[in-house]
Amino acid sequence: MTSSLSVDALPHVDPTLLKGIIVPARTVLLLIDVQVDFVSPDGVIGMAGVDMSGINSAIDKMETLRAVAKVQGAAVAFVRVVTREETDSTALKNLYARRGRPGQHAICRADEPGSDYYRLFPEDGDIEIEKVLFDGFHGTDLEEQLRAREIDTVLVAGVTTDCCVDQTARSAFHRNFNVIVVSDACAAYEDALHAGGLLALEKNCALLADTKSVLSAWSGISDEA
Questions:
Q1: Which CATH class is domain 12-81+119-219?
Q2: Which residues of 15-37 are buried (b: 16+ CB within 10 A; e: fewer)?
Q3: Across the beta sheet with 153-159, what order do the strands follow?
Q4: Residues 13, 180 contacting (CB under 8 angstroms)
Q5: I need a surface site. Which of 55, 96, 206, 223 has the fewest CB within 10 A?
Q6: How far apart are CA 17 and CA 21, in angstroms?
Q7: CA 20-28-39 angle, 5° bins
Q8: pTM surpassing 0.90?
Q9: What is the pLDDT of residue 220?
Q10: What secondary structure does DSSP assign to 163-182, as a single string?
C-alpha cells in the first residue's frame, strides 16, 4: 500500500525552536519496540515476508540519535513488549479470534528470541521498560522513572508509528509530558499508516521533528543524518 500523503509535507517544528524544547537534562529519547519479532528478518513479521527497508532506515536514524543523546547527556529509555500467556488480555485474544486469526497475538514471548532487542541494546544507565501491550506507560513505572530524573520532554522513536509509537506518545501527553516524535526515526509496515499516524499525532498531541533537526539542536551537527 502506498500513500499520497508525504511525510515531508507534514508540519514539522521550526528547527530554530528545538534547542529550547529538547534540553538534554530534561529530555528522554524513547526507543520503542526495536525487537527481533518486529524488525528483524528472522522475526515473526520478517518471516512473513514484510518489506523491512523502511524499518531499517528508521533504525539507522535511531542509532544516530542514541549516540548523540549519550554525548549530550539526555536520558535514553528502551521500551519493549514482553508477553506471556498469563498476561494476554481477554480483549486481545478476542480481537484476533474474531478476525479469524486465533493465537496470532502470541508475539515477543518471554524467554524466546523474538522478544530480544535488535541492533540497539541498552547500556549502563539506560532505562529499561517491559510492557505487555502497546502503551509504554500502561502498567509500567516509566512515568515514575522519568519524574525521578526531572524529565518533562519525551523524544519518541521506534516502531510502529501507527501502534506502539502512537499509543505511547499519546499516553505521555496525557501525563503532561511534552512530546516530540522524530518522523524519520519511526516506521510502520505500510507507508500510509506511517504518514497517517504522524499526521494524527501532530494534529492532537505532539510536535514532529526530523533527525537532522534534532542533531542540530543538540550538538550543532547540520550535515545529513
A1: alpha beta
A2: beebeebbbbebbbbbbbbbbbb
A3: 127-131, 75-81, 27-32, 153-159, 178-187, 207-209
A4: yes
A5: 223
A6: 7
A7: 125
A8: yes
A9: 62
A10: IIIHHHHHHHHHTT-EEEEE
- Of 33, 9, 11, 23, give the one whose Cα is nearest residue 169: 33
SS3 content of the chain, % helix, strand, coil (to 5): 45, 20, 35
93 grid coordinates: 485474544
Contact status, residue 30 vs residue 122, Cβ threshold 8 Å = no
Please state, in angstroms and rounded to a whole number, the distance separating the CA atoms of residues 20 and 153.
Answer: 11
Q: What is the DSSP string of 59-102?
A: HHHHHHHHHHHHHHT-EEEEEEE-B-GGG--HHHHHHHHHTT-T
Phi, psi for residue 215 in degrees, rounded to 5: -60, -40
Q: Pick the closest to residue 171 from 133, 128, 209 (CA basis).
A: 133
d(CA 43, CA 35): 8
Q: What is the mean pLDDT of each run of 10 residues along the chain (225 residues)?
A: 76 94 97 97 92 94 97 97 88 86 77 95 97 96 98 98 98 98 97 97 98 90 45
CA distance 52 to 45: 9
Largest CA distance in the chain: 52
Distance CA 180, CA 198 (A): 11
